Protein backbone atom coordinates (compact mmCIF):
# COMPACT_ATOMS: atom_id res chain seq x y z
CA UNK A 1 0.00 0.00 0.00
CA UNK A 2 1.11 3.56 -0.61
CA UNK A 3 0.96 6.58 1.62
CA UNK A 4 -2.10 8.31 3.02
CA UNK A 5 -5.50 6.70 3.05
CA UNK A 6 -5.68 5.98 -0.65
CA UNK A 7 -6.20 2.29 -1.05
CA UNK A 8 -4.00 1.72 -4.09
CA UNK A 9 -0.81 -0.21 -4.79
CA UNK A 10 1.11 2.88 -5.91
CA UNK A 11 0.46 6.47 -4.80
CA UNK A 12 3.37 7.77 -6.84
CA UNK A 13 4.05 6.43 -10.30
CA UNK A 14 4.86 7.43 -13.85
CA UNK A 15 2.22 7.80 -16.52
CA UNK A 16 2.98 7.79 -20.25
CA UNK A 17 0.81 9.48 -22.87
CA UNK A 18 1.69 8.06 -26.29
CA UNK A 19 0.75 10.64 -28.91
CA UNK A 20 1.01 8.30 -31.90
CA UNK A 21 1.03 8.89 -35.61
CA UNK A 22 -1.79 6.90 -37.22
CA UNK A 23 -1.81 5.69 -40.83
CA UNK A 24 -4.24 3.66 -42.96
CA UNK A 25 -1.98 0.61 -42.43
CA UNK A 26 -3.52 -1.22 -39.49
CA UNK A 27 -0.69 -3.72 -39.02
CA UNK A 28 1.82 -0.89 -38.92
CA UNK A 29 -0.35 1.02 -36.40
CA UNK A 30 -0.48 -2.00 -34.11
CA UNK A 31 3.26 -2.66 -34.21
CA UNK A 32 3.96 1.07 -33.89
CA UNK A 33 1.77 1.28 -30.77
CA UNK A 34 3.46 -1.84 -29.33
CA UNK A 35 6.87 -0.23 -29.77
CA UNK A 36 5.71 3.04 -28.16
CA UNK A 37 4.32 1.15 -25.16
CA UNK A 38 7.61 -0.75 -24.82
CA UNK A 39 9.56 2.54 -24.97
CA UNK A 40 7.27 4.09 -22.35
CA UNK A 41 7.66 1.11 -20.02
CA UNK A 42 11.45 1.20 -20.48
CA UNK A 43 11.30 4.79 -19.23
CA UNK A 44 9.52 3.64 -16.08
CA UNK A 45 5.86 4.18 -16.96
CA UNK A 46 3.49 1.98 -14.96
CA UNK A 47 0.42 3.36 -16.69
CA UNK A 48 0.36 3.89 -20.45
CA UNK A 49 -2.42 5.75 -22.27
CA UNK A 50 -3.03 5.61 -26.04
CA UNK A 51 -5.01 7.97 -28.31
CA UNK A 52 -8.61 7.84 -29.47
CA UNK A 53 -8.88 5.66 -32.65
CA UNK A 54 -5.24 4.66 -32.97
CA UNK A 55 -5.49 1.57 -35.23
CA UNK A 56 -6.81 3.38 -38.32
CA UNK A 57 -8.07 6.71 -39.63
CA UNK A 58 -10.73 8.66 -37.73
CA UNK A 59 -13.54 8.65 -40.28
CA UNK A 60 -17.01 7.24 -40.73
CA UNK A 61 -15.81 5.34 -43.80
CA UNK A 62 -13.00 3.72 -41.82
CA UNK A 63 -14.81 2.75 -38.61
CA UNK A 64 -16.55 -0.32 -40.12
CA UNK A 65 -13.35 -1.39 -41.92
CA UNK A 66 -11.07 -1.22 -38.86
CA UNK A 67 -13.64 -2.37 -36.30
CA UNK A 68 -12.86 -5.42 -34.18
CA UNK A 69 -14.94 -7.83 -32.16
CA UNK A 70 -13.31 -7.18 -28.80
CA UNK A 71 -15.40 -9.72 -26.90
CA UNK A 72 -14.40 -12.50 -29.32
CA UNK A 73 -10.72 -11.53 -28.81
CA UNK A 74 -7.80 -13.36 -30.46
CA UNK A 75 -7.73 -13.02 -34.26
CA UNK A 76 -11.03 -11.11 -34.15
CA UNK A 77 -9.31 -8.32 -32.23
CA UNK A 78 -5.59 -8.03 -33.07
CA UNK A 79 -5.40 -4.53 -31.54
CA UNK A 80 -6.62 -5.56 -28.09
CA UNK A 81 -4.71 -8.88 -28.29
CA UNK A 82 -1.53 -6.79 -28.65
CA UNK A 83 -2.50 -4.58 -25.68
CA UNK A 84 -3.18 -7.59 -23.48
CA UNK A 85 0.09 -9.28 -24.43
CA UNK A 86 2.22 -6.21 -23.84
CA UNK A 87 0.49 -5.30 -20.54
CA UNK A 88 1.19 -8.80 -19.22
CA UNK A 89 4.75 -9.00 -20.53
CA UNK A 90 5.76 -5.60 -19.19
CA UNK A 91 3.59 -5.72 -16.04
CA UNK A 92 1.97 -2.37 -16.72
CA UNK A 93 -1.58 -1.01 -16.76
CA UNK A 94 -2.83 0.17 -20.15
CA UNK A 95 -5.69 2.50 -21.00
CA UNK A 96 -5.81 1.44 -24.60
CA UNK A 97 -6.99 4.64 -26.26
CA UNK A 98 -9.95 3.63 -28.37
CA UNK A 99 -10.74 1.57 -31.44
CA UNK A 100 -13.95 0.97 -33.36
CA UNK A 101 -15.69 -2.03 -31.79
CA UNK A 102 -18.08 -4.33 -33.64
CA UNK A 103 -20.73 -5.93 -31.47
CA UNK A 104 -23.50 -7.68 -33.40
CA UNK A 105 -24.87 -5.09 -35.83
CA UNK A 106 -23.55 -2.11 -33.87
CA UNK A 107 -20.31 -0.20 -33.93
CA UNK A 108 -18.96 1.64 -30.88
CA UNK A 109 -15.97 3.86 -30.14
CA UNK A 110 -14.47 1.78 -27.33
CA UNK A 111 -11.61 2.09 -24.87
CA UNK A 112 -10.20 -1.04 -23.19
CA UNK A 113 -8.30 -1.08 -19.90
CA UNK A 114 -5.85 -3.92 -19.24
CA UNK A 115 -4.28 -4.84 -15.91
CA UNK A 116 -0.72 -6.00 -15.29
CA UNK A 117 -1.74 -9.61 -15.98
CA UNK A 118 -3.08 -8.65 -19.39
CA UNK A 119 -6.67 -9.10 -18.26
CA UNK A 120 -9.35 -6.86 -19.78
CA UNK A 121 -10.59 -4.94 -16.75
CA UNK A 122 -13.10 -2.69 -18.43
CA UNK A 123 -14.49 -1.51 -21.73
CA UNK A 124 -15.79 2.05 -22.08
CA UNK A 125 -18.04 2.79 -25.02
CA UNK A 126 -18.05 6.51 -25.86
CA UNK A 127 -21.28 7.85 -24.40
CA UNK A 128 -21.52 11.26 -26.06
CA UNK A 129 -21.11 10.88 -29.81
CA UNK A 130 -19.45 13.75 -31.63
CA UNK A 131 -21.97 15.30 -34.02
CA UNK A 132 -20.70 18.72 -34.97
CA UNK A 133 -21.48 21.16 -37.76
CA UNK A 134 -19.65 24.46 -37.74
CA UNK A 135 -20.18 25.75 -41.29
CA UNK A 136 -16.95 26.38 -43.15
CA UNK A 137 -14.93 24.83 -40.33
CA UNK A 138 -15.81 21.29 -39.38
CA UNK A 139 -18.61 18.84 -39.93
CA UNK A 140 -18.43 15.36 -38.43
CA UNK A 141 -21.37 13.14 -37.56
CA UNK A 142 -20.17 10.15 -35.57
CA UNK A 143 -23.72 8.93 -35.08
CA UNK A 144 -23.89 8.12 -38.83
CA UNK A 145 -21.98 4.93 -38.07
CA UNK A 146 -21.54 4.62 -34.30
CA UNK A 147 -23.90 3.77 -31.47
CA UNK A 148 -23.55 5.55 -28.13
CA UNK A 149 -22.44 3.73 -25.02
CA UNK A 150 -24.82 3.74 -22.08
CA UNK A 151 -22.70 3.56 -18.95
CA UNK A 152 -19.91 5.36 -17.13
CA UNK A 153 -16.76 3.27 -16.67
CA UNK A 154 -14.67 3.43 -13.53
CA UNK A 155 -12.05 0.82 -12.81
CA UNK A 156 -9.75 -0.15 -9.95
CA UNK A 157 -6.20 -0.72 -11.11
CA UNK A 158 -2.79 -1.03 -9.48
CA UNK A 159 -2.33 2.64 -10.29
CA UNK A 160 -5.52 3.90 -8.76
CA UNK A 161 -9.20 4.22 -9.44
CA UNK A 162 -9.56 5.48 -13.00
CA UNK A 163 -12.62 6.92 -14.75
CA UNK A 164 -12.69 6.65 -18.52
CA UNK A 165 -14.17 9.05 -21.07
CA UNK A 166 -13.56 9.38 -24.78
CA UNK A 167 -13.00 12.79 -26.36
CA UNK A 168 -16.41 14.55 -26.52
CA UNK A 169 -17.27 12.85 -23.19
CA UNK A 170 -14.91 15.42 -21.62
CA UNK A 171 -17.45 18.19 -22.27
CA UNK A 172 -19.91 16.62 -19.85
CA UNK A 173 -19.06 17.60 -16.30
CA UNK A 174 -21.75 15.23 -14.98
CA UNK A 175 -19.70 12.23 -16.07
CA UNK A 176 -16.59 13.54 -14.31
CA UNK A 177 -18.67 14.30 -11.21
CA UNK A 178 -19.93 10.72 -11.14
CA UNK A 179 -16.35 9.48 -11.30
CA UNK A 180 -15.24 11.85 -8.53
CA UNK A 181 -18.18 10.81 -6.36
CA UNK A 182 -17.14 7.19 -6.87
CA UNK A 183 -13.61 7.92 -5.70
CA UNK A 184 -11.67 8.32 -8.94
CA UNK A 185 -8.09 9.55 -8.59
CA UNK A 186 -7.63 10.07 -12.29
CA UNK A 187 -9.82 10.44 -15.36
CA UNK A 188 -8.30 9.37 -18.68
CA UNK A 189 -9.78 10.83 -21.85
CA UNK A 190 -8.29 9.45 -25.06
CA UNK A 191 -9.35 12.18 -27.51
CA UNK A 192 -8.84 13.63 -30.95
CA UNK A 193 -9.93 17.25 -30.86
CA UNK A 194 -9.67 19.21 -34.10
CA UNK A 195 -8.20 22.43 -35.45
CA UNK A 196 -11.38 24.42 -34.66
CA UNK A 197 -12.32 23.35 -31.14
CA UNK A 198 -8.84 22.16 -30.12
CA UNK A 199 -7.25 25.60 -29.64
CA UNK A 200 -10.40 26.90 -27.94
CA UNK A 201 -11.42 24.14 -25.61
CA UNK A 202 -9.01 21.19 -25.30
CA UNK A 203 -6.85 22.49 -22.46
CA UNK A 204 -9.71 24.49 -20.93
CA UNK A 205 -11.90 21.40 -20.57
CA UNK A 206 -9.12 19.30 -19.05
CA UNK A 207 -8.27 21.98 -16.52
CA UNK A 208 -11.96 22.51 -15.77
CA UNK A 209 -12.64 18.81 -15.12
CA UNK A 210 -9.55 18.58 -12.91
CA UNK A 211 -10.35 21.75 -10.97
CA UNK A 212 -14.05 20.99 -10.54
CA UNK A 213 -13.28 17.61 -9.06
CA UNK A 214 -9.75 18.00 -7.65
CA UNK A 215 -8.34 14.95 -9.37
CA UNK A 216 -5.85 14.17 -12.14
CA UNK A 217 -6.93 14.36 -15.78
CA UNK A 218 -4.91 12.77 -18.58
CA UNK A 219 -5.63 13.11 -22.28
CA UNK A 220 -4.02 11.39 -25.23
CA UNK A 221 -4.47 12.48 -28.86
CA UNK A 222 -3.17 11.08 -32.11
CA UNK A 223 -0.31 13.12 -33.58
CA UNK A 224 -1.39 15.63 -36.21
CA UNK A 225 -1.38 14.58 -39.86
CA UNK A 226 -2.12 17.70 -41.91
CA UNK A 227 -3.00 15.51 -44.90
CA UNK A 228 -5.58 13.38 -43.10
CA UNK A 229 -9.34 13.70 -43.62
CA UNK A 230 -9.66 14.63 -39.95
CA UNK A 231 -6.78 16.73 -38.63
CA UNK A 232 -6.17 16.15 -34.92
CA UNK A 233 -5.12 18.94 -32.59
CA UNK A 234 -2.58 16.86 -30.65
CA UNK A 235 -1.39 18.47 -27.38
CA UNK A 236 -1.81 15.40 -25.14
CA UNK A 237 -1.66 16.61 -21.55
CA UNK A 238 -1.57 15.69 -17.88
CA UNK A 239 -3.38 18.10 -15.53
CA UNK A 240 -3.06 17.99 -11.74
CA UNK A 241 -5.82 18.37 -9.14
CA UNK A 242 -5.28 22.14 -8.88
CA UNK A 243 -5.99 22.49 -12.59
CA UNK A 244 -2.29 22.91 -13.31
CA UNK A 245 -0.79 21.61 -16.56
CA UNK A 246 1.89 19.20 -15.38
CA UNK A 247 3.10 17.93 -18.74
CA UNK A 248 2.10 18.57 -22.32
CA UNK A 249 3.37 18.54 -25.88
CA UNK A 250 2.78 20.08 -29.31
CA UNK A 251 1.19 18.20 -32.20
CA UNK A 252 4.00 15.94 -33.37
CA UNK A 253 4.40 12.33 -32.36
CA UNK A 254 5.79 12.08 -28.84
CA UNK A 255 5.69 10.12 -25.61
CA UNK A 256 5.05 12.26 -22.54
CA UNK A 257 6.26 10.76 -19.27
CA UNK A 258 5.13 12.46 -16.06
CA UNK A 259 4.83 11.66 -12.39
CA UNK A 260 1.51 11.36 -10.61
CA UNK A 261 1.34 11.65 -6.81
CA UNK A 262 -2.10 10.86 -5.43
CA UNK A 263 -1.31 12.32 -2.00
CA UNK A 264 -1.63 15.73 -3.71
CA UNK A 265 -5.36 15.08 -4.17
CA UNK A 266 -5.94 15.06 -0.41
CA UNK A 267 -3.72 18.11 -0.01
CA UNK A 268 -5.69 20.12 -2.57
CA UNK A 269 -9.01 19.13 -1.11
O1 LIG B 1 -15.72 18.26 -28.49
C1 LIG B 1 -14.96 18.55 -29.41
O2 LIG B 1 -14.79 19.72 -29.77
C2 LIG B 1 -14.20 17.49 -30.14
C3 LIG B 1 -14.70 16.12 -29.86
C4 LIG B 1 -14.13 15.10 -30.74
O3 LIG B 1 -13.29 15.36 -31.57
C5 LIG B 1 -14.57 13.72 -30.60
O4 LIG B 1 -15.41 13.43 -29.75
O5 LIG B 1 -14.04 12.87 -31.33
From TrEMBL:
Official protein name in the record: CN hydrolase domain-containing protein
Matching PROSITE patterns: CN_HYDROLASE (PS50263)
Ranges of residues in domain CN hydrolase: 13-262
UniProt entry tagged with the keyword Hydrolase: yes
One GO CC term, this protein: mitochondrion
InterPro entries documented for this protein: C-N_Hydrolase, C-N_Hydrolase_sf, Nit1/2_C-N_Hydrolase
GO BP term, pick one: oxaloacetate metabolic process
GO molecular function, one term: omega-amidase activity
Keywords: Hydrolase
CDD domains: nit (cd07572)
Amino acid sequence: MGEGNLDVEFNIFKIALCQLSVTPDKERNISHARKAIEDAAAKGAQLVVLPEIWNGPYSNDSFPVYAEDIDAGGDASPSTAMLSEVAQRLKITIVGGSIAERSGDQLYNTSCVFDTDGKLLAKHRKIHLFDIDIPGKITFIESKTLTAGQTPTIVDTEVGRIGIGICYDIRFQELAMIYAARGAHLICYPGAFNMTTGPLHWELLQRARATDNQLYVATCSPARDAGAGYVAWGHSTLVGPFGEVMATTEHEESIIIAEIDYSVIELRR
